[in-house]
Design brief:
heterodimer, A: 343 residues, mainly alpha, two-stranded antiparallel ribbon, 2 strands, disordered C terminus, B: Rossmann fold, six-stranded mixed β-sheet, four-stranded antiparallel β-sheet, globular
């Protein structure tokens, strides 16, 4: 839709100004945020819009990263094709997980995806000659055009990818497919009585979401230049879920907040542990502890996440056209998120 | 025409339907009546594919419905309005209606069909962009009925459409049903606790008791049988 394209163009303009005026390290971090936005957007579609939980998105990221790295190592494919292959391979993994997932719900589905996240690293470790073992596989970004620095160029690849994914998903959510996704989440029986193939809808959601995770995995691999199983631990999958909830489940824009938290919270926790001279045992888990604490506070203060809280506050601003008492807009911060995409 | 033969359904050891057989004609309303636990809801859920029967057959216009997926049956023109309404609360009124048009109407026909339904239920017109979760019970009933009608069903299964509605709204709803069924080829199966109201708009009536058909006759005959009314219908 035109609105989404305009929004993405505006976002690209802002990001151009930002990346042109920040350090190379900041460019690296902005690129990482963009990568996390891609996986979180897919996770938001799966969990927030379609109602399926996944604790295995770190593993889907690993599938995408390894696919790209293997293609870079063994072929001379076009860079775009390599990235698309990451999407495809992770999508196939999503299909394999998504089919049995149609029969599972809630904690059972979480358990199955968790098993996937646990089972994948040993598979990579089993064939070190293929997957590089502990050392992993190297990944290289294509040469930057003109005088652009490699970090800035990579950040632009990642930002561009994130914007494309956001536009595609926003269009998808506003299409008839978006309505079927939400209908299935709300009431599977009512959806099937309306003629929706519930199982196919759920599998497709898994495939799309896993594809996004695969692309994000490839992007993160490009950031670090190496892919190994240590880059996609189980805690990553859990942090992704927490970041999605904090950003605002179901909101695509909210996933930008989630991406920022995923990149900066570990950094802030390291600073915090250094400031208070905490031992290495504590500082290693401080980011996860802070994530948990922020999650608890956010769920009390703004159950719809940061984006939901901001939307609620915006509607209460004088002159916003829908202040307190306005029809249909005065819902509390915990009320169901009405529009799931790009307010 | 809907033909149900020897339909038996069990939930574990509990037999919900026992050899139920009856026919429902197109262009008419068939009321399925009975007390709580008689098997009325199970009957509708079996026809629409939500429940698998032990034995029996359900033919609609000569085609066997049993064994098909719920969405396949829905796409064949069977609209089931379940008890408890079954609207998608997170979608707007218009989106709920649009959802039901995806499989049965061409893109250019959809908006016209939505406007027709909103004209049929003027109360929903002002709420078209509001989320279904904000609607009252009566408005939800109108929406779910509108969603069923917009798909232009050939078989309409209604499970307690008057549940929780004010008597005036119930009367309006029944009148609308009668108008919709008369003179068309739509077959309507109406499950109701409010037997008096259901019989007033139906041409045929089936009375169930403990999963068995007690009577399958014209609605006028059932309404005139004082003993039957007293024993099974409570009026």
């Amino acid at each position: 839709m035109l609105r989404h394209l305009l929004f993405a163009t505006f976002g690209a303009g802002i990001m151009y100004l930002v990346t042109s005026n920040i350090s190379l390290f900041d460019n690296y971090q902005v690129g990482q945020i963009a990568s996390f936005v891609v996986v979180l957007a897919g996770l938001s579609l799966l969990t927030g819009v379609n109602g399926q939980i996944s604790l295995g998105h770190g593993a889907f990221m690993a599938v995408g990263a390894y696919t790209t790295a293997l293609l870079m190592t063994h072929t001379q494919w076009n860079f775009i094709l390599e990235l698309l292959s990451a999407v495809g391979a992770a999508g196939v993994a999503g299909l394999l997980i998504g089919i049995p997932a149609t029969r599972l719900k809630g904690p059972y589905l979480a358990g199955m995806t968790l098993l996937f996240a646990l089972a994948l690293p040993p598979i990579a470790d089993k064939w070190p000659n293929t997957f590089g073992g502990d050392q992993g596989l190297t990944m290289t970004t294509p040469n930057a055009p003109g005088t652009l620095s490699p970090q800035e160029w990579l950040a632009w690849i990642q930002i561009g990818g994130a914007l494309i994914v956001l536009v595609l998903l926003a269009n998808l959510l506003h299409s008839r497919y978006g309505r079927t996704l939400r209908a299935v989440r709300d009431d599977e029986i009512a959806a099937s009585l309306a003629g929706i193939n519930v199982a196919r809808t759920k599998v497709l959601a898994f495939v799309i979401s896993a594809g996004c995770a695969g692309l994000a995995g490839a992007f993160l691999g490009l950031s670090t230049g190496v892919v190994n199983t240590g880059a996609f631990p189980l805690t990553l999958s859990i942090q992704l879920l927490a970041a999605m909830v904090l950003g605002g489940t179901g909101s695509l824009i909210g996933m930008v907040w989630g991406g920022i938290l995923l990149v900066y919270l570990p950094q802030w926790s390291t600073s915090l542990s250094g400031h208070f001279n905490l031992g290495s045992g504590v500082s290693a888990y401080l980011a996860t502890i802070i994530f948990g604490a922020v999650l608890i506070v956010a769920m009390i203060a703004a159950p719809n996440g940061i984006q939901g809280g901001l939307r609620w506050a915006w509607r209460r601003l004088p002159g916003s056209g829908s202040g307190v008492g306005g029809s249909g807009s005065s819902a509390a911060p915990g009320a169901p998120t009405p529009v799931l995409t790009d307010e | 025409m809907l033909e149900i033969k020897d339909l038996s359904v069990s939930y574990g050891a509990v037999r919900a339907l026992r050899s139920v057989s009856f026919e429902a004609q197109p262009g008419s309303i068939t009321a399925v009546l009975g007390a709580n636990g008689a098997g009325k809801t199970t009957l509708l859920r079996t026809i629409s594919g939500l429940v698998r029967p032990r034995t029996g057959s359900v033919h609609f216009n000569g085609e066997e419905l049993l064994g098909r997926r719920v969405e396949t049956i829905a796409r064949q023109g069977v609209a089931h309005v379940p008890e408890g309404r079954g609207i998608i609360e997170e979608l707007t009124v218009e989106e709920n209606l649009r959802l039901a048009t995806l499989w049965c109407l061409k893109r250019r026909e959809r908006q016209t069909a939505i406007e027709e339904i909103l004209e049929l239920f003027p109360r929903l017109m002002g709420f078209r962009h509001r989320h279904a979760s904000t609607l009252s019970g009566g408005e939800r009933q109108m929406l779910v009925l509108g969603r069923a009608l917009i798909s232009r069903p050939r078989l309409l299964l209604l499970d307690e459409p008057s549940l929780g509605l004010a008597p005036l709204v119930t009367a309006q709803l029944m009148g609308l049903l009668r108008d919709h069924a008369t003179g068309t080829d739509v077959t309507v199966v109406l499950v109701e606790q409010n037997a008096r109201s259901a019989l007033s708009v139906s041409q045929h009536a089936v009375v169930l008791n403990l999963g068995e058909v007690v009577v399958s006759s014209s609605a006028a005959e059932v309404a005139a049988d004082e003993g039957l009314r007293h024993h099974y219908l409570g009026f």
